[in-house]
Amino acid sequence: MSQSQQASKAVMTAPVLSRRRFFQGLALSSLAAGSTAAAAKTGSVSGPPVQPGEDLVIQAGWVLAESGGELALLRNGCVLVRNGAIETVQSAPFRSSLPRLQLPHDILLPGFISGHTHCCSATPSRGIIENPRSYRRPLELVEALPDADMDALTALNLAELLRSGCTTHVEMSLSLRQAESYVRKAVPMGARAYPGAMIPGIERLFAIWFREADQVLFDAEEATLAEIARNLDFCRRHMGKGDGRTRPMMSPHACDTHTPATMEALAAAARDLGTGLHIHLSQGQRETDTVRRLWGKTPTQWMDSFGMLEAGPVFGAHMSGLDWETDPPILAKHGVVYAHCPSAGGAGNGTQPYPEALAAGIPVNIGIDTHSNDYLENLKLAVLYGQARHELLDQIGSPRRSQRPTVQDAVDGATRVPARGLRRDDLGVIRAGARADLVSVDVSGMLNGSGALPPEPLNNLLYSSGRMVRTVMTDGRLQVFDGQFIADDPQRLLEEGGEVVRRIWRQLEEEGWFTQVPA
Length: 519
Description:
By secondary structure, the chain is an alpha/beta fold. The protein is built from 19 helices and 17 strands. The chain has helices at residues 3-7, 19-28, 122-125, 136-143, 147-163, 176-189, 202-209, 215-219, 221-238, 260-273, 285-295, 299-305, 327-334, 354-359, 375-395, 407-414, 416-421, 457-460, 490-510; strands at residues 11-13, 56-67, 70-82, 85-90, 100-110, 112-117, 166-173, 192-199, 251-252, 277-281, 314-318, 337-340, 364-366, 438-442, 469-474, 477-481, 484-485. Strands 1, 2, 3, 4, 5, 14, 15, 16 and 17 form a nine-stranded mixed beta sheet that branches. Helix 6 links the parallel strand 7 (166-173) and strand 8. Helix 4 (136-143) packs across helix 19 (490-510) and helix 5 packs across helix 19. The longest helix is centred in the last third of the chain and has 21 residues, at 375-395. The chain starts with a helix and ends in a 9-residue tail after the last helix. Mean pLDDT is 90; it is low at 1-9 and 14-48.
């Protein structure tokens, strides 16, 4: 390995241990939450193990820091982490004997926050729905899995989210069983979680959502009320798990799958918990039209009439069917966060109103949704799709206001915007007092860099993907080190999750699901 190649690697110093002792330490420590770290297979870094809560100093080529509410890029910045929090941020080196994580070719950013995930179901549908095919049948097969297989899928998808720098998940599991699986796996991996189960869950959803007559909705009301009660119990049981990182919230599917009685119950449950709501909000014009026909209001207006937008943080996904005359002032008044998901419905499945939401003053987060767990890829797509949409709206003379998204908008939407939406001033920023949820991205290497530390590193994120993420930590606990996932054994997760997916695909093949689709 050349000197330049060695310099591009993360280095732990003070003191320096052998590579073998480093990874033995990881395997023996609680860092892997009882699992053996597999990073020794591919890692190449010497340094000491950093136990959960152990103090350390991070030196990075660039640090995106906040001071007095303003963001600033610090060249050769240093961050002191103590007890899982950021104690000091400065541009001068620290004189300290603490373990030192040196990232000379990276930009250090706050951990990314996804305001919309469906964690368990990404890998079974990835690569098979883009023709396009419906994701309905693969998701039904996921729900039919036994708990052990469901856990294998959840663990792999969680690992992907963390590997790409996404440390906080506002998680709408597709059923209560999937939500239980998410908590089982997220807590030992150290993820920061706002989980809830979609109501109605996937086992009941499609009959209600795609109903031919509204009586189906009213006939389902009693079962939906029972589902709300079970989900409220789930939230209470898991509140505060993982040293306080788990804060469940109520997660209704959408307004067109609920009645006034279930909306009242959801609002009461959200007020009881105080952690808010996570919903698909005006995710398409069909939803908005249905709610208007039944209740004489847009979904946003209807939620507001029940006091649901005042019950704590609210994250609304997609918003493609928003009424741009009536809804934005209501959303802005209550600080509702729009979770914009560039990969919703699979890769290349159209654009969402990101430029319009920015122009309307709605707080916009970059979310994951289902099929792609690569947060950096989605951040990049948000900017590129959003700029193309803005230009197209301008060319056709659309009366709708729009704003050209920038990479700065997207980074803010990945960090500070959702943190404010969650009412957490200790997340989404690198400053003294914030939690040490951090991600570093190599912006100097092949494909996204130029072999040298770039002068404007945020722009290099537009050429990046999750594979360029070098370091991830939550509450100061390392989950990715030197580009290797170390919160669990990644090879085992791939093998176990892959075997479950293969069985699902075999079932789909036996059912004749893989029919030829015209290009």
